Amino acid sequence: MQTSTFPSVRALDQLLDGLGAGAARRRQLDMVRGELERALNRGALPVGARRSLRRLLEKEALDPYVRLAESGALRHRRVAGGFPPTSKATNEIRRKCVDLLREALGLPALRLGGAEIPLQPAPEAATLSALARQLDQYLAGPMSPAQARLTAVLALELDTAARSGELVELRITDLGEDNTAVYVERRPQGGGTVEGEWVETSALTRAALERWLDVRNDLVQRAHGTTRLWVSLWMNHDGVLDNDGHTTIRPPGMPLEENGLVTSYRVGRLRYDGLRQLLPLKLEQLRRAVDAERHRTTA
Predict the structure, then answer these.
(1) What tens digit of pLDDT does each residue of 229-248 get?
(2) 5, 142, 183, 253: which is deepest, by most CB within 10 A?
(3) What is the pLDDT of residue 243?
(4) Pairwise CA distance, residues 173 & 164, whole Å
């Protein structure tokens, strides 16, 4: 990210770098950072907000910022040829990010975005058990590389209740001997101390990892190696265009990014028999269900 001309935004960059937020939350915070800078460029915020981060995060600056942002005027690119208002979900994310930034600066939350959006329902314990049985059935037969990867991801999720950002950061060095345990670094979504723990894996997860690691090893050899546990299955590109409009082609076996992991979940939910009825729309809903069940059984 380029250095801002505004001292307040440069101070915001330093604050963001020190938060230690997970990848998903950091993208949301970067969205707010970009919107705030565009609001300053438009001259829409008080003059003092250009120089002081505290003034930038005061209600006098945030009120006009939120109004502009919700109207769509601070979007960084067009949508369907225009700049439509942002969605209720985006508005709620913006509010949460603003409060996170204020709290990091020692200021109270403002809750500028309105009422909380209710959490989507999470699967019940019986559904989690049925999901484990379905994965076990997959392991009893032939699987495509994509199905082998998703089966291992879901099995690990059932054991660990890891966030998508925590899952995607796993490396083969985080697996214990014979895959009997996995080391997960817990990264709070809103930032905070990263804490690691070893989690014992189930027989299902050990079998799923064995199948996936065979596939992974072949892919990684072609891509000249990586220690990341989850890797890409097909040739893709890095999404960055050079001056000639070309992008760097990435071979199969490259580290899988968080967006790729989440996309594989969504696609697999619809592609493989039995999963649509067992998996919620989002991986985060599954994580919450597993987390609640872990707390219930250890209480």
Answers:
(1) 999 998 665 444 445 555 55
(2) 253
(3) 54
(4) 18
pLDDT digits (tens, 9 = 90+) for 280-293: 988 989 999 999 99
Q: How far apart are CA 207 and CA 203, in angstroms?
A: 6
Per-residue pLDDT, 245: 53
> 17 pLDDT band (50/70/90 cuts)?
confident
Per DSSP, the three-state class of 109 is coil
Yes or no: say if 231 and 218 are a contact pair by the CB < 8 Å rule.
no
For residue 189, CA distances in Å to 18, 20, 256, 287 come to: 14, 9, 20, 13
Q: What stretch of H or E contains 203?
A: helix 203-222
Rounded Cα distance between 66 and 112, Å, is 8
| Higher-pLDDT residue of 209, 243 | 209
What pTM was computed for the model?
0.64
Whether residue 168 contacts residue 256, with contact meaning beta carbons closer than 8 Å, is answered with: yes
Length of the chain, in residues:
299
Mean residue pLDDT across the chain: 87
Backbone conformation region of residue 286, classed left if phi is above 0, alpha if psi is from -120 to 50, else beta: alpha
3-state secondary structure 115-184: CCCCCCCCCCHHHHHHHHHHHHHHHCCCCCHHHHHHHHHHHHHHHHCCCHHHHHCCEHHHECHHHCEEEE
Kindly give the interhelix angle for 145-160 and 125-139, rounded to the nearest 10 degrees.
140
> Quick check: helix, strand or coil at residue 84?
coil
State the burial class of residue 236 (Cβ atoms within 10 Å of its Cβ: 0-12, 13-18, 19+): middle
Residue closest to 123 by CA, chosen among 281, 295, 273: 281
